Amino acid sequence: MKRKSKLPIILKTILPFLLTMVLVIITIYGFVIPKIGEILFDQKKEKVKDLCKNTIQLAEQYYERFRNGELSEGEAKRRLIERVRIMRYGDELKDYFWIIDIDYTMIMHPYLPETEGTSMEYFEDSNGYRVFYNMSKLVKENKAGYLEYTWQLRDEEGVIEDKISYVQLFEPWNWIIGTGVYYSDIKRNTAEVTEGINFALTLISVLIGLVSLYIIIREIKAAEYRQQTSEEREKLISRLRTINTELNMAKKEAEEANTSKDQFLANITHDLRTPLNGIVGFSELLEDSSEKERTIHFSEYTGYIRRSGKYLLQMINDILDFSKAKAKKITLERSIFCLNDVISEVVTSLSFFSLEREIPIVFEAEGTFTVEADEMRLKKVFYNLLSNAIKYTKDHEPINVELKQSKNELLITFCDRGIGISSEDQKRIFSPFVQINRIKTEGTGLGLAIAKEITELHDGYISLESEVDRGSIFTVHLPRDILTEEEVSTQRPPVPEFLKDKKICIVEDDAISRKLMILFLKRYEMKPIDIPSGTEFLDYLKTDKPDIILMDIQLPDINGMELKEKLKETGAGEIPVIALTAFSSEEKTEELLKKGFFAVCHKPVDSAILLKRLAEALRPDPPINSD
Ligand code: ADP
What is the pLDDT of residue 627? Predict the structure, then answer.
């Protein structure tokens, strides 16, 4: 923000001060001082008049003394003259009185004694004014009055100045007594007053100046503070605007997410209902069928039930996988395998669906690639991309799957000639629950999101080229460093001999899960022991000890953790326990491992993983692990 100039503040404060000062100066020098001069002049005039009258009274006293015979007339006059001769007043005590006869003879003048006894009738001042003649004339007409003329300054010979005198006639002796004041004295007094005023004015100006300076500094500081505050306010407002925009965006995103979630819930409800209807419907059909019908349709109906169940399981796994991957809680289980084989497996397993619609899948590889990666999870990525290609392509159009390497990457391409994806939608489809075109009703909108997360966990990414109605090419880019020179055996390892005849307790309250587990273990010639509750398990331990325990940790009677603790009291503390749990969080797994469980298997239990864990636990030196 532009800084404001300080000039207006200074002008705003200085201008009234200057105007006030000009007005004060005009008033003082134009009116007050001249008025004071006038007053001082009038006062002086009054003073000389009073002094003259006092001297007249003095003359009257001497005259009285002559009248009452105390003094002779000559003596009275002489005494009066001598008295008046020495009378002085004024600042320097040099102002004086004089006496002159009405017929112009000088009786007494303290500074001009040589004129005494002489006629002053024709005496003229420096301007040719007949001073004593006019004095006599004035008292003859008015007895008393003022007279202006020039005269020697007191006792200073040759110094002539303007003077105003008051003269009064002393009638008994026809004497004129007078005294006067010099204009220079009045001017000097006025100058003294002016000086005082000047000093006071200077003092006031300095004071006002200081006050103005203080006001200016305060105003500048206040202005700066106001500017700072307004700048901060501006900043706050702009920050608020940004936050508002961000909030609006977040709100929009939340609303979009909510819409996606609602859409997802609607889809998922549909997707759950369809296979569930199949399971319930075919189970009821089996129950209600006659013995004969049941025998005929058994494998067909159970096939439907199994497929629907698998689909449901797949969907739940998808959701779990995605939430785990999203929370970056998946730890990749790397193993060495042949990438070509995994892709071929996916192609084969999906060919069943593609052949129905006469869609040939052509898989070509530029070499054989052995990699170290998470086989199951990469399989999921390829499965999702290929099943999408099949879902969204046109019937009879081939799908090409390619495996090759570039300088830095392994590239797995899935190319279809289907409906394609607009460039607008290409940005969205990797977000969870986003489905653009539900032309084939299956799917949760999670397939691509999961594929993206898993590929990124492998430090790779997925790219997409697509054109509406022309088809799409999805390419998985994996870093070349997952390639390995190590040999890989294509055969799955056989079930280890040492697992045969092992006594395995299945502590699980859910009858179906228990049944499944028993059938599975029996297939591998192990000896499962069927225990539906914690209490019954503790009873069992009193009579026998198993080689290993598979324990549901959410038993209704005794909590899995407590049961594990109780094992020690029964002397079975050393027997390995594999926890079975529906919780798939890493934290829960960690917690269980810390409590001493040998391994954790998540429901629905993957048979291959369970076999692996059993083998690990029952081997002579078992390592600790979880799925
Ligand atoms: P879905 O379960 O809906 O397949 P996906 O996350 O796998 O969820 O895909 C998201 C959306 O991306 C799909 O609904 C579809 O609209 C679009 N899509 C994915 N693959 C293709 C493809 N090969 N051709 C056209 N559209 C596709």
Answer: 47
The SS3 of residue 359 is coil
Query: Distance, CA 252 to ligand 1 centroid (Å)?
Result: 23
Residues 41-181: name the CATH superfamily: PAS domain (3.30.450.20)
Token duo for residue 36:
């004071």
Q: How far is CA 189 from the centre of its chain?
A: 72
**CATH code, 326-482:** 3.30.565.10
H or E stretch at 336: strand 335-338
What's residue 363's pLDDT? 94
Ligand 1 binding pocket, CB closer than 6 Å: 384, 388-389, 392, 416, 418-419, 421, 429, 434-437, 443-449, 472
Least Cα distance to 79 among 94, 64, 91, 95 occurs for: 64
Cα gap 548→528, rounded to integer Å? 10
User: Residue 423: in which H helix or E strand, if any?
Assistant: helix 423-426
What's the CA-to-centroid distance between 412 and ligand 1, angstroms? 18
Task: Give nearest CA residue, ligand 1 atom 21.
Answer: 388
| Ligand 1 atom index nearest CA of 443 | 2
DSSP symbol at 102? T
Residue pLDDT, tens place only, 216-233: 888 888 888 988 999 999
Q: What is the pLDDT of residue 313?
A: 73
**Which residues, 6 or more positions from 305, have their beta carbon under 8 angstroms from its beta carbon?**
278, 279, 282, 283
Question: How far is 95 from 115, CA to CA, in rounded Å?
Answer: 18
Report whether 576 contacts 594 (CB < 8 A): no
| Whole-number Å distance between alpha carbons of 3 and 6 | 9
- Ligand 1: which of 381, 391, 423, 433 to mutate, judged by most atoms within 8 Å of the beta carbon? 391
Helix locations, 410-533, DSSP H: 423-426, 447-457, 511-523
Looking at 105-244, which runs of residues are DSSP E strands? Answer: 106-108, 144-152, 160-170, 175-182
Within its chain, how far is the Cα of 406 from the centroid? 48
Ligand 1 closest atom vs CA 435: 14
Q: Are strands 471-479 and 461-467 parallel, antiparallel or unpaired?
A: antiparallel
Nearest CA to ligand 1 atom 13: 435
Residue 3 has pLDDT above 60, yes or no: no
Strands 361-365 and 335-338, by their bridges, are unpaired
Q: Which atom of ligand 1 is nearest to the CA of 420?
A: 25
Query: Any idea where the domains of the chain sit in the sequence?
Result: 2-35+188-251, 41-181, 326-482, 497-626
pLDDT of residue 81: 96
pTM score: 0.43
Residue spans of beta strands (DSSP E) within 173-307? 175-182
- In order, the DSSP letters of 518-535 are HHHHHHTT-EEEEE-SHH
CA distance 383 to 367: 21
Q: Look at ligand 1, atom 20, and give the residue with the nearest C-alpha.
A: 388
Instruction: Given CATH 3.40.50.2300, say whether it is the number of domain 497-626.
Output: yes
Specify the length of the chain in residues. Answer: 627
Task: From 113, 98, 284, select the one nearest 179 (Cα to Cα).
Answer: 98
Spacing, Cα 598 to ligand 1 middle (Å): 40
* Under 8 Å between Cβ of 114 and 99: no
Give the residue from 403, 341, 329 showing the smallest Cα distance to 375: 341
